[in-house]
């Protein structure tokens, strides 16, 4: 079975995608795309528990489903494809042992992973990510220090292995060094400005046009107030981030 694995990034509409997958699971199933329940936390959740288990995250709870539970559930489906989603999979980029564990377990069960990653413009992503981490995840660093680390390393790391890449070229190299399944990288900004994030995502997983039309009218979730950042800090950091992380070519591998 082809398994589409949506891996993030954070702040690119992941919550909306996950809620849509769960809410429209029956419609997707009728179209030949199975949405597993192993690894989800509630009726709108992504498959976060799978990523937590792979990384040894303290929040992991086997009652919500393990990787082996996911594989067993996939084995019971007659669909041609399945899809799971969690931005926690994004963190596997710097944990090759865990990523390899995922790949090997799926391969042994006869499943083929196809990874999907949405990215967004570095300056707006940094502002949105900073607000999320500061308001909800204990970040205390000033914005200028936050962006300074990103400019030095191409990424920001907190809580040991929460790794947020803004250097997507580096992310792609590191991911593809371990993963054999193709990685399809899409622009969040282009999707939003075009036919919409959900219709774009649904087209990537082979959903028919009728399902994509439902996605056009789906509710956008997890819209949060921007963090309080000084105007000059925002302007200077934004210019430096845009210059440092300009796209350097086509990264996407087209899915056959």
TrEMBL record:
Gene3D superfamilies: P-loop containing nucleotide triphosphate hydrolases (3.40.50.300). It comes from the Bacteria. This is Sulfotransferase family protein. It comes from Rhodopila globiformis.
């Amino acid at each position: 079975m082809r398994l589409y694995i949506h891996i993030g990034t954070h702040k690119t509409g992941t919550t909306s995608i996950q809620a849509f997958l769960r809410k429209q699971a029956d419609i997707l199933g009728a179209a030949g795309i199975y949405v597993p329940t192993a690894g989800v936390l509630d009726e709108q959740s992504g498959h976060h528990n799978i990523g937590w288990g792979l990384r040894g995250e303290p929040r992991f709870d086997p009652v919500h489903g393990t990787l082996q539970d996911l594989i067993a559930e996939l084995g019971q489906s007659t669909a041609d494809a399945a899809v799971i989603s969690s931005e926690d999979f994004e963190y596997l980029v710097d944990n090759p042992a865990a990523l390899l564990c995922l790949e090997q377990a799926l391969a042994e069960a006869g499943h083929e992973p196809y990874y999907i990653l949405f990215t967004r413009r570095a300056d707006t992503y940094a502002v949105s990510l900073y607000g999320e981490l500061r308001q909800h995840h204990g970040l205390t660093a000033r914005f200028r220090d936050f962006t300074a680390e990103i400019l030095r390393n191409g990424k920001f790391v907190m809580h040991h292995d929460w790794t947020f890449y803004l250097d997507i070229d580096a992310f792609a190299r590191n991911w593809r060094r371990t993963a054999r399944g193709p990685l399809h990288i899409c622009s969040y900004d282009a999707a939003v400005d075009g036919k919409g994030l959900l219709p774009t995502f649904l087209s990537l997983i082979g959903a028919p046009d009728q399902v994509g039309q439902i996605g056009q009218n789906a509710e956008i979730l997890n819209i949060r107030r921007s963090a309080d950042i000084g105007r000059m800090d925002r302007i200077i950091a934004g210019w430096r981030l845009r210059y440092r992380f300009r796209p350097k070519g086509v990264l996407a591998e087209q899915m056959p």
